[in-house]
Automatic annotation (TrEMBL):
Similarity annotation: Belongs to the AB hydrolase superfamily. AB hydrolase 2 family.
Catalytic activity field: S-hexadecanoyl-L-cysteinyl-[protein] + H2O = L-cysteinyl-[protein] + hexadecanoate + H(+)
EC number: 3.1.2.22
Residue span, Phospholipase/carboxylesterase/thioesterase domain: 14-236
Name the UniProt record assigns to this protein: Acyl-protein thioesterase 1
Compartments, record wording: Cytoplasm
Function, in words: Hydrolyzes fatty acids from S-acylated cysteine residues in proteins with a strong preference for palmitoylated G-alpha proteins over other acyl substrates. Mediates the deacylation of G-alpha proteins such as GPA1 in vivo, but has weak or no activity toward palmitoylated Ras proteins. Has weak lysophospholipase activity in vitro; however such activity may not exist in vivo.
UniProt cross-references to InterPro entries, sorted A to Z: AB_hydrolase_fold (IPR029058), LYPA1-2/EST-like (IPR050565), PLipase/COase/thioEstase (IPR003140)
Keyword Isomerase: no
GO cellular component: cytoplasm
GO MF annotations in UniProt: carboxylic ester hydrolase activity; palmitoyl-(protein) hydrolase activity
Length: 240
């Protein structure tokens, strides 16, 4: 499997990065859709050491959208019930693609790293909606511990199998979840159910889980959410 195409935003200071944040876009979007957020985060002095990597999902047919090909991390059959039938093969393929990008950061072979190696415990995997689902899956199944997962307006896929799929390295995983309470696409309850599942079924310590509700926010992001993400990053990948 070749590496996914990515947009990379290195530290604006020109210094070598010491941490990485992946941002995975949602269905039908591209890396450009989240580049403004990455730029905003990169301009914070407390995150001047962070490298931002925005992968692009492959183009593939999506059942939910009448089979039309579009950028998609996996096929979505329905959003009416997250416990319904899922594209397991597509989910695992995209999670593996992200883990391959993580490995490239660890080995110093990723685009623009110039041999700089960034250990997995200095890497955060984040994403919005469909991208957030893959971020959770990749963070829970990566064979070495990542610093954290940022899961925005999303849900945890493969819940019936995740306990057997997850790696023991994720036992102390840090997770930030953000969700608008009027989301008409990925319902707010899917986010709260995911939080409860991580805590109760996967036994991730409560102190490692943060769930933020954004009143009146639809399937989107807001300035307060971006500030909350920044604070989470300052905690899990602080400047060294």
């Amino acid at each position: 499997m070749s590496l996914l195409k990515t947009m990379v935003i290195n530290p604006i200071s020109g210094a070598k990065p010491t941490a990485t944040l992946f941002i995975l876009h949602g269905l039908g979007d591209s890396s450009a859709g989240w580049s403004d957020v990455a730029q905003m985060l990169s301009q914070r002095p407390s995150l001047a050491h962070v490298r931002f990597v925005l992968p692009n999902a492959p183009i593939q047919p999506v059942t939910l959208n009448m089979g039309m090909p579009m950028p998609s991390w996996f096929d979505i059959l329905s959003l009416d019930d997250i416990s319904g039938k899922e594209d397991e093969a597509g989910l695992l393929k995209s999670a593996d693609a992200i883990k391959k990008l993580i490995n490239a950061e660890e080995e110093g072979t990723a685009s623009g790293l110039d041999g700089t190696k960034i250990a997995s415990h200095r890497i955060v995997v984040g994403g919005f909606s469909q991208g957030g689902a893959i971020s959770l899956l990749a963070g829970l199944t990566h064979p070495s511990p990542v610093a954290g997962v940022v899961a925005l307006s999303t849900w945890l896929p493969l819940r019936a199998k995740i306990a057997s799929l997850r790696h023991q390295a994720s036992s102390n995983l840090r997770v930030f979840q953000g969700h608008g309470d009027v989301d008409p696409v990925v319902r707010y309850e899917y986010g709260t159910r995911t939080h409860d599942f991580l805590k109760n079924d996967l036994a991730i310590p409560d102190k490692n889980l943060s769930f933020k509700t954004y009143p009146g926010m639809p399937h989107s992001a807001c300035p307060q959410e971006i500030r909350d993400i920044a604070e989470f990053l300052e905690e899990v990948i602080p400047a060294q």
